[in-house]
Amino acid sequence: MDAERIQMASSLFCGRSSEPWRDRVHGWFQIFDSLYQVKPAKMTPGNFNGYNAGPNQHRFRALGPDRSEAQLAAQQLLEDLFGGRIQEMTTKLASTFWAAWPNGRFLIHKTVDLNDGLISKHPDWEEKVKFGQWRVYHFGEIKKGLQRGLPEILDAFLGLQNALLVTVTVSVEAQFSVRLMMAMEKAASGDWKSRNLPMVSPDDVQMASISMTSLESATCKRAYTFIRGLVLGHLEPTQTLETYFTPHVWLNNKRYNTSEIRDLLAKEPFFAQSSETGITDISEMSTEKLRKKVPKLHWEQFEKYLKHTQLRPLVRIRTTALECTVGTYDPKNRTFRNRISVFLVLVIDEAEGTGHESIKISAIFQN
Q1: Torsional class of 122: left (φ above 0), alpha (ψ -120 to 50), beta (otherwise)
Q2: Angle, alpha carbons 15-126-160 (nearest 5°)
Q3: CA nearest to 269, candidates 286, 256, 251, 287
Q4: CA atoms of 65 and 154, how far apart (whole Å)
Q5: For the segment 97-153, what is each residue's pLDDT rounded down to a tens digit?
Q6: DSSP string covering 202-231, please?
Q7: How many angstroms from the chain centroid is the CA of residue 323?
Q8: Tens of pLDDT, residues 167-191
Q9: 208 close to 231: Cβ distance less than 8 angstroms
């Protein structure tokens, strides 16, 4: 299985898997070509037997110095990379490192060979290059933040269950902007070292999408977790869906039991499952505005359903409508295209005495 995933990684990071990945990788390879001449014959491929992630292996989940130290080491590696300091780079790499080369090869090498395999072209970028939007992830965070299946591909060759993934936007004004990643391991000496030469990062979609922290209302945050689960393919178990939905859910023009929703979403998803899909906006609206956006027949059928619904308030019940916009990310132009909307009707139930609110989805309409 790992060999198959490493082959998938090769297709991704060498730009062979899809047009967005080709654009993403091609941009970085152009930059790398401006920095270095590569001599493949001087760097013999190394052996890869995986990374030890046993029960006694240190796992990096700390919120304190581990993260800041890993980020600092990654920044120093990038500074050496853009400064043409190959010897210094070798001190910040693990004993072997993965690399995706502009010639389309995806290999692991011995770090001691790097000095012979690269020739710096010394472009005048070191003083101009800027770093921003740093993120440091442990494996659990990566699994929650990326499209289902992608974290496992990264883990297959980078061993992310006992490393931290550091990502950053690297830019030189008016020349380029690219998002890169490095898998950082903590050596026995306490120093942080990268298991790969910087590669393009798949979290550029996540960074371009809206985040939950940008949303203020509890209803928008609830809608966000549901839509994000759909986008990333994380809503499989029926019990997961039951936490989001009322016992019966209206979908476009018909009422369904919650248990039926999973199969319906699998057969007819709202949007294609893709690592390039992101959430561009979530906003509340009045039901009157929603009425104008939904096909007339669907809305009339929904109103008839509401008259016979079995929902009853514990103390009081409120409803609100939301529009959730999803698009396909274009890494070349760093924007979203092919935007579609999903409309949700949420029921807010407030329990007597506690003031605790239960927010669940009672209806879904597609644009």
Answers
A1: left
A2: 45
A3: 251
A4: 24
A5: 999 999 999 999 999 999 999 999 987 787 889 999 999 999 989 988 899 899 999
A6: TTHHHHHS--GGG--SHHHHHHHHHHHHHH
A7: 22
A8: 999 998 878 899 999 999 999 899 9
A9: no
Q: Is pLDDT above 80 for 50?
A: no
> How far is residue 123 from each of residues 83, 129, 248, measured CA to CA in Å?
8, 11, 62
Residue with tokens 């929902």: 311
CB atoms within 10 A of CB 164: 28
Task: Please state, in angstroms and rounded to a whole number, the distance separating the CA atoms of residues 24 and 312.
Answer: 51
Contacts of 62 (CB under 8 A, 6+ apart): none
Angle between helices 2-13 and 150-158 (to 10 degrees): 100
Which residues pair with residue 254 across a beta bridge? Answer: 251
**Nearby residues of 160 by Cβ (< 8 Å), 6 or more positions away:** 138, 139, 142, 151, 154, 183
pLDDT tier for residue 8 given thresholds of 50, 70 and 90: very high
CB atoms within 10 A of CB 221: 15
What are the backbone dihedrals phi and psi of residue 58, each rounded to the nearest 5 degrees, phi first?
Answer: -65, 130
Average pLDDT over residues 18-42: 92
Structure token pair of residue 295 = 């096909």
* Token output for 312: 């009853």
Of 14, 43, 52, the residue nearest 162 (C-alpha): 52
Size (the chain), residues:
367
Cα distances (Å, whole numbers) of residue 194 to 38, 89, 96, 272, 304: 19, 10, 9, 34, 60
Q: Encode burial over 63-90: b for 16+ CB neighbours within 10 A, e otherwise.
A: eeebbebbbebbbbbbbbbbbbebeebb
Cβ-based neighbours of 211, under 8 Å, separated by 6 or more: none
CA distance readout (Å), 53 to 56, 93, 151, 234, 365: 8, 19, 15, 24, 44
The backbone torsions φ and ψ at residue 338, rounded to the nearest 5 degrees and listed phi first, read 50, 50
For the record, the structure tokens of 85 come out as 């300091």
Which pLDDT belongs to residue 92? 97
| Opening angle at CA 210, ends 209 and 213, nearest 5 | 140
